């Protein structure tokens, strides 16, 4: 099946309506990752069909749970989930951050080529990042365990804000290790991705 069809079907299954133009930009973004992957090792996922599920739909599955106006994606790598979210939600101010120059050089290229005006790119270790303003929401995928994620980003979340941690299997151990009980854990079903997915929401307010 073509990437266009996979994306269209996946979005329908997720109950998401994105314009034709946005869908084209999402696929242009995948094409850019593939192009850069030939020279730089940006992501291990290289199969065109798998990329739609693991890069785009996995990121976009979070959209219905995104209730914020400023978002920081920590350890964003090739721009995941931040770039698909910025493309799908032009009203959202998205900052993507990574400590790797190679990754943020790619992120800047993607921002320029796709004309993503609601996206900022930051090259920094997250623990050293001192923005002028904190964020409503700080998100990460495949960055660290939950305790480390909260520790490294505590200075970046608004007092009324929250964290979203994108996880695979239900993270019982990570939650226990972080001393977190009674947090919201939403199971997500991602079209084209057989593995389990869970989204953990942690409020900054104690
Ligand atoms: C496994 S990758 C995940 C990339 C992306 N979120 C994804 O899901 O495809 C983790 C990323 O975190 C970045 N990273 C690790 N420690 C970091 C730190 N302390 N500050 C900023 N970025 C960091 C790495 O450079 C790497 O790009």
UniProtKB/TrEMBL annotation:
<feature type="binding site">
    <location>
        <position position="141"/>
    </location>
    <ligand>
        <name>S-adenosyl-L-methionine</name>
    </ligand>
</feature>
<feature type="binding site">
    <location>
        <begin position="98"/>
        <end position="100"/>
    </location>
    <ligand>
        <name>S-adenosyl-L-methionine</name>
    </ligand>
</feature>
<keyword id="KW-0949">S-adenosyl-L-methionine</keyword>
<keyword id="KW-0963">Cytoplasm</keyword>
<dbReference type="Pfam" id="PF02527">
    <property type="entry name" value="GidB"/>
</dbReference>
<keyword id="KW-0698">rRNA processing</keyword>
<comment type="similarity">
    <text>Belongs to the methyltransferase superfamily. RNA methyltransferase RsmG family.</text>
</comment>
<dbReference type="GO" id="GO:0005829">
    <property type="term" value="C:cytosol"/>
</dbReference>
<dbReference type="InterPro" id="IPR003682">
    <property type="entry name" value="rRNA_ssu_MeTfrase_G"/>
</dbReference>
<feature type="binding site">
    <location>
        <begin position="126"/>
        <end position="127"/>
    </location>
    <ligand>
        <name>S-adenosyl-L-methionine</name>
    </ligand>
</feature>
<dbReference type="InterPro" id="IPR029063">
    <property type="entry name" value="SAM-dependent_MTases_sf"/>
</dbReference>
<dbReference type="GO" id="GO:0070043">
    <property type="term" value="F:rRNA (guanine-N7-)-methyltransferase activity"/>
</dbReference>
<keyword id="KW-0489">Methyltransferase</keyword>
<protein>
    <recommendedName>
        <fullName>Ribosomal RNA small subunit methyltransferase G</fullName>
        <ecNumber>2.1.1.170</ecNumber>
    </recommendedName>
</protein>
<feature type="binding site">
    <location>
        <position position="75"/>
    </location>
    <ligand>
        <name>S-adenosyl-L-methionine</name>
    </ligand>
</feature>
<keyword id="KW-0808">Transferase</keyword>
<comment type="function">
    <text>Specifically methylates the N7 position of guanine in position 527 of 16S rRNA.</text>
</comment>
<feature type="binding site">
    <location>
        <position position="80"/>
    </location>
    <ligand>
        <name>S-adenosyl-L-methionine</name>
    </ligand>
</feature>
């Amino acid at each position: 099946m073509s990437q266009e069809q996979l994306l269209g079907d996946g979005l329908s299954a997720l109950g998401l309506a994105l314009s034709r133009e946005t869908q084209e930009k999402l696929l242009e973004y995948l094409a850019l990752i593939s192009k850069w992957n030939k020279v730089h090792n940006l992501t291990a996922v290289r199969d065109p069909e798998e990329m739609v599920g693991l890069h785009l739909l996995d990121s976009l599955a979070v959209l219905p749970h995104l209730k914020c106006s400023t978002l920081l994606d920590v350890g964003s790598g090739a721009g995941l989930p931040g770039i698909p979210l910025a493309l799908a939600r032009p009203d959202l101010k998205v900052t993507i951050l990574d400590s790797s120059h190679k990754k943020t050089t790619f992120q800047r290229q993607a921002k320029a080529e796709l004309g993503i005006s609601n996206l900022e790119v930051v090259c920094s270790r997250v623990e050293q990042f001192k923005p002028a303003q904190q964020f409503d929401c700080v998100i990460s995928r495949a960055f660290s365990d939950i305790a480390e994620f909260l520790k490294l980003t505590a200075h970046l979340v608004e007092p009324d804000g929250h964290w979203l941690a994108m996880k695979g299997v239900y993270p019982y151990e990570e939650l226990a290790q972080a001393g977190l009980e009674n947090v919201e854990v939403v199971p997500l079903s991602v079209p084209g991705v057989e593995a389990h997915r869970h989204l953990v929401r942690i409020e900054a307010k104690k």
